Amino acid sequence: MPFIFFDIDYTLIDTDKLRSRLSDAFQQTLNITAQQYKDVISNYTSALASSTDFNPDEFISFLAPKYDFLIADLEKVYWHNPQFYQESLYPEVLRVLKRMKGEYNMGIFSEGFIKYQTAKLKESGILNFFDPKNIYIFRRKLLPENLANLPAGSLVIDDDPVNVKALLNLPQVVPVWINRKNASTHPQARTITSLLALLD
Question: Which Gene3D superfamilies match (predicted)?
Fold first, then answer.
């Protein structure tokens, strides 16, 4: 069976929606305003080199002493609210994965912290669609040693045009740019606006 690999954020999961759900929950738990939460998360993320460097456990440790909360209580917001992840799954994802199951070796090729990225898959209910041997989550997935994990002939679905450009340089893979934001198309790679296009 052919291989197909999916990125997670903005490909399978609407990350903006997930962040919004988590933001609302933290505001309610901490009894703070939206602006207060925006300020504190901005203070944390300003020190990060990349958005994929966001680490929920580190953020909770940063947040808890500011509002005199136990870390364990704030951890519940991230790790005990599966509905946030389920609601953030793009509408067509389950339909597409169910159709592809048995026709493709499906995998993940993503970037970030393993615990958080895996939680997005598990809590949204889609983890079992992917062969554990084909789940690749790296801190920096474009490093040559990480790209080397992609089998020859793989389709790789990614929302980031920078990643797509890098993947185009690999003779063994076929990148597809999923652009859910606007009508722009990639000059060199196939562009889709929904995963449903993969079923055509």
Answer: HAD superfamily/HAD-like
What are the phi and psi torsion angles at 7 (to 5°)? -70, 170
Range of the domain at 78: 16-85
Integer Cα distance of 25 and 106 in angstroms? 33
- The CATH number linked to 191 is 3.40.50.1000
Average pLDDT over residues 88-102: 97
Q: Which strands sit side by side in the sheet containing 190-192, from one edge to the other?
A: 135-138, 105-111, 3-6, 154-158, 173-178, 190-192
Separation between Cα atoms, residue 121 and residue 30, nearest integer Å: 27
Residue that terminates a domain, selected from 33, 52, 85: 85
Mean pLDDT, the chain, integer: 95
Same domain, 186 and 158: yes
Q: What confidence score (pLDDT) does residue 52 get?
A: 85
